Amino acid sequence: MDPTFGNNTWPDIEAALKSDAPCVAILPCGATEAHGKHLPLNTDVVISDGVASYALPNLEDADIAAFVLPSLAYAPAEYAAAFAGTISISTEAAAGVIFDIAKSLKVQGFACLAIANSHFDPANVMMLRGVVERIESELQLPVAFPDFTRRKLAETLTEEFKSGACHAGQFETSLVMASRPELVDEGARQSSDDNPSSLTEAFAKGAKNFEEAGGPEAYFGFPKAATPTEGVQTYELMAKALVEAVKNKLG
Ligand SMILES: [Zn+2]
Asked: How far away, in angstroms, is 34 Cα from ligand 1 center?
């Protein structure tokens, strides 16, 4: 079997489902959203795909047959809606797609859906929390969802992430530099001055978009401080949380 779900044929998937190993499908959840002038619109897709691939060897070691589903590139992204290139969809539409994917997986006999999410727009996170609950209660399909906005997991990540000044800053830029360096505009990164404005504080105060939150160029944090080494370390931490969540669900 190929861990990239879509590269398999239906008999490949059927054989995996009939084997003794529990089958887990990882859904990388991202967005198509402005990420400063130095990172691509699909930054969150790149990051969630990266988390999923870093998790694969550890799942394999635990005798779990894990597949990475085609990633979800559309999400609620109203904070960035004023920037060219951002595609924001409703929470209902996003939840509907994820619920229906889960329904297909459940019918076929997958043991667990794992959600690798790196799009931390509050509307997206609330949508994910809600749909995870619905999938577990209505479909009885266990969902592994490490929610990095929860204190316990947030504390395992970098200082910038914890400060809330973390959209296209050091945290995300490091991750993209680690897995898809060709997508980072180095000149634009070097000229992106530090922006310590905290998005989470601005959200709490009622800011409705990135401009109101103090991010006129759609980035928050410290892009110039990003390194591929930090990116690899963060991928490992995020992947570890995903693997732990899967193991907990499979009990
Ligand atoms: Zn992002």
From this structure: 8
